[in-house]
Amino acid sequence: MKPNPTLHMGFHDATPYVGFHKDVRGVRGLWERFNAGLLDIEERRTPYHQLLLGEWQRCSSLGVDVAMTKGRRLSDDEFRLRREAEQLLLETSVPIVQDVGHFLVDVPGIMILTERTGTVLHITGDPAVRERAAVQSGIVEGSQWNELTAGTNGMGTALAKGQPVHVFATEHFCEGWHSWSCAASPIFDADGQTVLGIIDFTTIEADFRDQALGLTVSVANSIQARMALHRELERRRLLTAFSDAARHYPHDDMLALDHAGRPVMHTPNERCRQITERWVSAGSDDTVAVRTTIDVEAPNSGTRIGTIVLLAKPSGYQRVFRTEFKGTTAIEQVGRFGEFASRDPDTRRMFDDLQRIAAAEVNVLIIGETGTGKELLARQVHACSPRHNEPYLPVNCGAISEHLMESTFFGYVKGAFSGADPRGRAGYFESAKGGTLFLDEVGELPPAMQVALLRVLEDGSFQRVGSCETIRASCRIIAATHRNLEELIAQGRFRQDLYFRLKVVQRTIKPLRERPCDIDVLVDQFAEVMRRKHRLVAVNFTAEARDALKRYHWPGNAREVRNAIEAALLCSDGDIGLECLPPEVLRRAEPEDRSASAVPIESMASVRDYERQIIVGMLRKYRKVNQVAQALGIARSTLYRKFAELNINQSEFTGADIQPGADY
Ligand SMILES: Nc1ncnc2c1ncn2[C@@H]1O[C@H](COP(=O)(O)OP(=O)(O)OP(=O)(O)O)[C@@H](O)[C@H]1O
Fold it and tell me: Is the domain 5-229 a CATH 3.30.450.40 member?
């Protein structure tokens, strides 16, 4: 395990925050002048002031409301999901926090546990302080304290810095928290780097003691140690599951991934070693097709502790079928680009292209009908790019009113127009600086904005509204639209020069009706997502329901599939029959409509026939099961499964009764 960064007892390595004299009045004056824009040069000189001003400036450019008086609270549903996702952290931390609480009976403060995004999961401590924190500032379970939602504050700043911090009274960015002082420490996962949550001790400003920081560091360390023990148990369970899987699938290559998707074990051969190396450095390996995955769950809670990934064969069986059976895609492997899953060969080729394009950092234009997954692709291109640690900002150009467009994209200075934030505000280009700006529905941009955007794309510079100061912010642009931009150009509604700037690389996502082989993939993927979300044990489809889903033409693409599956699950207990499907899906599945949409079903039948034909041909040719398996590049066990599935009596062709396991 790496050394714990809590050893840096400070807000900033070079200028330890805890070492500064806490001058509440002086800092209040500084805060007032900062917000009024009246700071003079002298005030910026001391390291302490520089530290605070840097923090406040960052919050201001993130658009945090300085006048906030209550913490933002998640909806009950969102909070329930968040708690469920953090069961292990809660089960590990709450007993420790409560134990410590017994020794703090007369201490006027509260101890707060948050998860990794700053949502409060648990509060314990002095009832009077707890009451005041809730009523006065909305510090309650389910409230959010990351810096983006609440500015500089103990929990949010410890999260942002990954270090223990003091944030004292007027040092807070929002005035609403000026009566509080907090000490907060991150809880790290077993890798010593990933922050799992925060332990915070909050008091009213006058009751604050410097020792509070030591207290939070020590509680966070205890939680960390217990989490590390859990992780070790999980790892052992995962390794046992891996050995079981290796026994069941002796001819398959496989990896075991932990809860965070990191490889912990692989089949001991060179191919898997190389795949594991790529997986470790890139977080996955999109060059390799996954045959199937097996979730490994904790025995009591059912939470996923890892996954066994069975890899597709590098060559052989699938390739025989793929090259010989042109015209159908029904037996292609599922390829993935992040969450985007597809069996369709064109789409999978696009994944490979995008993987390379991501690294090249050029602008990308994605064309596709609504709900085809344009945002999903854009997000993954960013995740695979060298900018993945910088911001990714999705913007729906069609949803911004025309008169606010310029200030939304480029920001404005104070006093730029009436009704604006008196402190001015950064625009999308500044907020996404160094990262990726995703311009969804780019075809909806009005002409004036097209000109302005073109200027930024040309030299990366712009001015905030109301200012002459030129700002440079280089962000990568990924744009998307469902419109035909060339038609818009012909009609004079979209600038050709902007089009060329955006489409350095252009890719089109096929609508779902043109890749029917993906319906099953999406149905299964969303069924699993919804099974987890609605906490069902299993989801099963009747054969008729599957057929109906496959026959429907899905004008709303993947989004419509997701909604249909969720709706179907909500009206069932996990067994989905025709009665659970939306009426439009059923209408399309009626017999008179078959002519238009029955192709995939027929293809499936012909695929099976074709598969049977090939295997029988091979049996006739080789007359030995192990030679047939070898020629097809599959394990004998898989071949025996195929015999059963395809109703093949192998002895008819080999002239002998061949027993599974006999060494022919
Ligand atoms: N191939 C896919 N595999 C898994 N999920 C997908 C796939 N395509 C889309 N989705 C899911 O479908 C939904 C819609 O995707 P997304 O918002 O990316 O579509 P879009 O093309 O950007 O839509 P719009 O044009 O309406 O903004 C999301 O929930 C996304 O996760």
Answer: yes
